[in-house]
Amino acid sequence: MAGQSCSQLSLFTPDEVEFMAEDELVEIVPNLRMDSLNFICGDYGPFYPQIAIQVPLWLALALKKRGKCTIRPPQWMSIDNLTQVLEGERESHAFQSLPFHYVEISRLLLDHARDDIPEIYMVRSLVEDIRDVRFHKVETNLENFTASAVTWKNMAAMEVNIIRAFSGRALQAFYRHENEQLIPDLDRTQDRQPQNLNDRPRRNLRPR
């Protein structure tokens, strides 16, 4: 670990980014009554049949796997909204507003809550198209990277993870380059400085 560079340590694997995304809240509709569930991260419930409640994504997936609830897809995953976002991504150089973990949330829901998502194939296609367009923007921004152009708004977690190592190294390079220009040449500076009288070699004044 000690031998790794800072840029390597700052990167997260896709699994790690997905793990962090599982703390995002989603809405579920329980199909049975349950008392509150108590965890270190918080308490959730009580749960009542057909009454929607918000829980972390990891808990929603666990209850879904056991057949105890259905998951309501977030509003941003509707076909109308995704279509609008895709059009905006294609027409603008800016990133459209989406949840920070939209890639991970959509993948988990599409993989584990298929029967809860209307027109799932269209939703999956739109999400993949949006992701591809945004990743292309990331690549373009990296090609045109300058020290003054580092405020990219509305980037998602996976996109930030892609550029973290590159941008960190680039900014370090810019910083070193600017500092080198500010640091004078020590040899030339010493040559220009007046010689201290006390440093001159003294003549032997004793009589022969």
Automatic annotation (TrEMBL):
Signal peptide (residue range): none
Any one of the GO CC terms: GINS complex
UniProt keyword DNA-binding, yes or no: no
Stretches assigned to the GINS subunit domain: 76-168
Protein's cellular compartments: Nucleus
Keywords tagged on the record: DNA replication, Nucleus
Gene Ontology BP term (one): double-strand break repair via break-induced replication
Pfam families: PSF2_N, Sld5
Disordered: annotated span: 184-208
Occurrences of domain DNA replication complex GINS protein PSF2 N-terminal (ranges): 13-71
Family: Belongs to the GINS2/PSF2 family.
Binding partners and assembly: Component of the GINS complex.
Full protein name: DNA replication complex GINS protein PSF2
Organism: Linum tenue
Lineage start: Eukaryota, Viridiplantae, Streptophyta, Embryophyta, Tracheophyta
